[in-house]
């Protein structure tokens, strides 16, 4: 997609997704005037090196990337590229996944097949310093905890 229609302050996004959707997701995100997908990778072991090369503002990481999963990669990415915000994408809540993602330094936890407009807005929100957690994923995570606390205390937006 040509850069000439984008503002000079477009958000640079790295997309790490292995299910063949990333081409479609990259195209759909690229339709947003302020978002530019600058790199795409299909395995977790390639994320950090690619991020060091392209310096994205936001990395979208599939929860279940091959070789290294999203939370594992997120922790290293936050250490190596501290200015890069991380959003973990998933198809469904798995026990402990929300806590693992947030403890690894992710700024958000979202459904990957949701509307692209919601994902684009989540990207903008994390750049403003907000935490974005899909309410359905947060609710599913709460049902997986014995105490009803933990992940539930981090839902919504804010730091």
UniProtKB/TrEMBL annotation:
- InterPro entries associated with the record: CheY-like_superfamily, EvgA-like, Sig_transdc_resp-reg_receiver
Q: Give all 4-aspartylphosphate modified positions.
A: 62
Transmembrane regions: none
Residues forming the Response regulatory domain are 12-127
User: What's one GO BP annotation on this UniProt entry?
Assistant: phosphorelay signal transduction system
Query: Quick one: where's region Disordered?
Result: 139-159
Instruction: Cite the entry's keywords alphabetically.
Output: Phosphoprotein
Q: Which PROSITE patterns match?
A: RESPONSE_REGULATORY
Per the record's keyword annotation, is Phosphoprotein included, yes or no? Answer: yes
Query: One of this protein's Pfam families, by short name?
Result: Response_reg
This chain belongs to the protein called: Response regulator
Source species? Streptomyces boluensis
């Amino acid at each position: 997609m040509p850069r000439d229609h984008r503002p000079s302050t477009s958000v640079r996004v790295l997309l790490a997704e292995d299910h063949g959707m990333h081409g479609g997701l990259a195209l759909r995100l690229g339709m947003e005037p302020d978002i530019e997908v600058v790199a795409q990778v299909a395995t977790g072991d390639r994320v950090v090196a690619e991020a060091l090369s392209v310096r994205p503002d936001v990395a979208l990481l599939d929860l279940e990337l091959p070789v290294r999963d999203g939370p594992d990669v997120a922790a290293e990415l936050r250490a190596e590229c501290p200015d890069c915000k991380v959003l973990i994408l998933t198809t469904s809540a798995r026990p402990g996944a929300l806590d693992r993602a947030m403890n690894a330094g992710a700024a958000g936890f979202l459904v990957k097949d949701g509307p692209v407009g919601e994902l684009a807005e989540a990207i903008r929100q994390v750049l403003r310093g907000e935490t974005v957690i899909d309410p359905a994923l947060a609710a599913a995570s709460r049902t997986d905890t014995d105490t009803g606390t933990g992940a539930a205390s981090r839902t919504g937006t804010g730091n």
